[in-house]
Structures are given as C-alpha cells and as structure tokens.
LytTR family transcriptional regulator DNA-binding domain-containing protein (Candidatus Mediterraneibacter tabaqchaliae), 301 residues
Amino acid sequence: MEEKLTVTAAGGRPMHFEGTEHEVPFLMGMLAGIPGREAEDAGFVEHSGALYEKMTVDQYLKFFAGLTGTMGCLDSAIEQMHLSGLLKKKISRCTDGEKKRIRIAREIAKGAEDYFVFNPIAFEDEESKRIILGWMETFCDKNACLVTLSLSHRDTCICPGDHYEITADRIQCIDPEESPAENSENPELPQISKISVSYHEKNFLFNPEEIDYVEANEGRVFVYVKNEQYHGDFRISDLEEKLAKFGFFRCHRSYIVNMQKVTELVKWTRNSYSLRLSGYDKTDVPLSKAKIQELRSMYEF
C-alpha cells in the first residue's frame, strides 16, 4: 500500500489523510520515497509550536529565505499566501489562520517543491482557509507533491484532491470516484417515521425532519441533531434510502444532509465545496465534486 501511495503522490495529485499525529513519520517517509526527490528538500508545515513571534511577518520570512540562500523565492511565497498586507504585522498578533499561511510561506521561501502540511485548515479564519485551499488546488496542475494530515474528517474531505483514512491496520480511500449511473435510479422507497440512535448508553427516536446531517467516519455512523452527536447502528447507504423522501441529499460519500437545514453553498476553490447549515456556523459539511451537478439539477442554481 505504501508503495502504491508513493507512486500516486509522485503523480502530482494532492493527497489528504485523516489520522493521528502518529502517522506523521509514515507520511513524511512516503514523500522521501518519491524517485528523483530529496527528503530534505520537502517543506514541512507543522500545526503549532513556537514561531519567532516578536518578529514581523516580513522579518521572519526574510530570515528563513536568507538561511537557505533562496531570497529569490520570497516574493512568490508572499504572493501565494497573500501576505503583502501583513508584512509589517508582528506574528504574535496574527490569527491562527494567518500563522498557518506564514508557516507555508516560510517553506515556499526556502525553495520547497513538495510539501507535507499537518492540520492545514484547522482554524476558523475563512479568508486564510480559502487561500490555503486555493494553493492546494494548484498542485493538481503541476508536477509536485502535496500531502496533508488532518485530525478532522470534515477538514480532510474539504481539501481538493484525493482523500484517505488511516486506521490501525489499513489505509482506505474515503471517496473513490463513483460511476455517474450509480444511485441514479430512485425506486419507491420505504416510508419511515423514526430513526433510532444511541447517546451515552441511552436510545432515542427522532423524526427525520429533526436530523440535521449524518456522518460516516471510521466505520461508524453518526447522526447530528441540534449540535449533538448520536451513534446509529446502521450503514449510511441504508439510511440514505430511508431519508431520501424527507429532503435529504447524499452530498458526499461520508455525508447525508437535510437540505431544509442548508443555508449556504460555500465554494472554496473550483474543486472544493461545502454546505453550511443553520445552527452550525463553525461546521461545514463537505460537498464532493461528483455531487455538485446533481445538486444543481435538483435545486436549479
């Protein structure tokens, strides 16, 4: 599996993994195994840790570009991460999203071609999130490698590229390409009145219209109602059939959403979309590229 993933990574398509920080050495090793690339040349963008916070953004980037003798890459780093308006700002005053952009710009300024980014969009700053996702998408068009690791299933699925889940004994693709004909037929579906779920060893019954969205993650299915997470003893495909008559849409291989609760379609990049729900201001539900046209046809937008 590792050899196969290394070959895929070398092909230039971004690869996004959901896992724990213990997977960092494995994924960094995957970058090191790409033929014709040197491991020490890859850019490593950490999630947190000390920055030189008394420096301004400009001072920080110039310092690292000077260390590696790559001052010629500095302007590109500033442009790619949209930092021109922040150059005189002290790093200590930057938001978490801005700090992530600074970390990425540091590696660009050092002349990196391939990148590993840990928790790339794990912050609330939407402008920074959009900038970083747009930067990720450029890797679809060039012969360079981008690998990310997110602790969040949603963050992994929103990133443009291929998505994988790392478990104790395997790596599996979260959203393999689906045939356009898949799920195209819509037979008469069974009518249901309640969905049975569990929470803290108690069982609850919800009407379908009460459910906000459904998530499949690590082999389990979770139902969300008013920001509370409940566990369901069923497969997401079974629930998809049951909920279809109630205005639910399979927006991603791992997600079903109640369209009555959707308030906004968020376009991050040309290939990265999410849905925003009423009452979930800090939670975006991924919308896969394969489902965008289907959604447009259904809701005429």
